[in-house]
Amino acid sequence: MADRATERMRVAAPPDELFAVVTDFERYPEWAVDIKHVQVLERDSEGRGVRVAFRAAAMGRSTSYTLAYDYSKAPAELSWALERGDITRRLDGTYVFDPTPDGATEVTYKLAVELVVPLPGFIKSRAEGRILANALRDLKARAEGSAA
Fold it and tell me: What is the pLDDT of residues 77-94, one digit of tens each?
């Protein structure tokens, strides 16, 4: 069974800028601390990555996985589902971008993770918390840095 986690963060950038950052997959290694390499395997008719392969740092080792992206609610949401992973059975998630009255965005990051090898609950919780916190912190830094 997959563990689910949700984290929220306010980012001083409009939703369309955040959507542009999270869909510019090839640039992830420039700003997402745990992402080491990205390759877009397939694009849709608008040039957006629909199948994307990643190599990332995970719990002291390297992991590889391919995600399939869903743009049906773009640009308010970006969702993905694991297509293939070496240590993950499930790695599905969603970014939700809610505009605030002052021009910022409330970003919600939802993630469902299931590993091939079972881990004790406290280790899984720590890893999930790190994934969510790093992803939002790195996204905030990238979006606010590029907006400045």
Answer: 999 999 999 988 899 999
Token pair listed for 106: 């409330």
User: What band does 136 get if pLDDT is binned at 50, 70 and 90?
Assistant: confident
In the numeric block, the tokens 């907006």 are attached to: 147
Domain boundaries, the chain: 3-147
How many C-beta atoms surround the C-beta of residue 19 within 10 A? 19
Rounded Cα distance, 44 and 42, in Å: 7
Q: How far is CA 60 from CA 50, 63, 83, 84, in A?
A: 28, 10, 23, 20
Query: Residue holding tokens 């002291």?
Result: 60
Domain spanning 3-147: CATH superfamily: START domain (3.30.530.20)
Radius of gyration of the chain (CA): 15
Quote the DSSP letter at residue 92: E
User: Whose CA is closest to 54, among 86, 7, 20?
Assistant: 86
Kindly tell me the burial class for residue 61, based on how many C-beta atoms sit within 10 Å of its own C-beta (0-12, 13-18, 19 or more): exposed
